[in-house]
Amino acid sequence: MWPYKGNEGMAMQTKRIYVFLLLAVWMTGAWAGEQAVSAEQWLSRKGMTCDINNTHLFKMSTGMTDGDDKFHYRHNAGKQTLYVEGVAYQGVSAAQVLKSDDSSKIALTVSEPRFGLQVIKVAVYLIGQPEESFGYYWVAKGSIAQNKPALRQLFSERELTGGMVTETAQGNVRVDCTIVG
What we know:
The longest helix has 27 residues, at about 5-30. It is built from 6 helices and 10 strands; from the N terminus they run αβαααβββββββααββ. It is α+β, with helices and mostly antiparallel strands.
């Protein structure tokens, strides 16, 4: 490796090895740490338009669910962060699992302006055993009529009237993104 220079050279070589090992350990720790994803990133155009090639909402949905109808996540309300499979999804003020006879979902409370809409909720859902239907939906504050200009930037007229975009009982916009089923 380095030419031998007696005891002094040996000490220098040992010091270099320690520095190299410390650097390697530090880099491994930084690489293995949780990836932070802002709400702006995980509520991307692809995610909001149900594009299966979106990375964050799809990864969040598949990462937090399993075949036993359970959700795997950790939520830190103080940091407004949801942790799923080594990724820290920021901007989540609350997370709540809701179950019924044949379905379950995790509802995430957010408050994020995206593409002219105020997104207030994102939910990942499972219906049936094994999953007959699996996906996510998001909710924006205000009616379809109030949000029509912003929705037209994201969806075609066929998508807006075809059942994917609906109105909740509270009068807000809901967009369903089915992954399976």
